[in-house]
Design goal:
108 residues
Length: 108
């Protein structure tokens, strides 16, 4: 009986261990992480220079966001976890759409 209970206990531990294995990547000190930060800083410099460059603030930030999502999707696909990137993208797109609709209603 003890062996059966012990085996059941070990089986219960396998699920969380497997779930913990899949997840987000730590891209902090990697080349893609540096590339993404560089893209963001360049876009932010364009936002700061809006007066001199005569462009809207949204254009460089939306372009940078698109490029960053492409880089992250590519990296996550290469590591075999494209579902994580897709879920994160869908979540952020939904948040942006909700904010846009809220502001549209609030400003009219």
């Amino acid at each position: 009986m003890f062996k059966l209970v012990f085996f059941a206990f070990l089986c219960c531990l396998a699920g969380p261990a497997n779930a913990a294995q899949m997840g987000t990547l730590d891209l902090t000190y990697t080349l893609p992480g540096v590339i993404v930060l560089t893209i963001f800083v360049i876009a932010y410099v364009f936002v700061i220079g809006e007066e001199f460059l005569h462009i809207r603030k949204s254009k460089p930030m939306l372009l940078a966001a698109g490029i960053i999502w492409i880089v992250l999707g590519w990296i996550y696909t290469n590591h075999g976890i494209p579902i994580e990137a897709e879920e994160a993208f869908n979540h952020n797109l939904l948040e942006y759409a909700q904010l846009l609709l809220f502001l549209l209603v609030a400003m009219t």
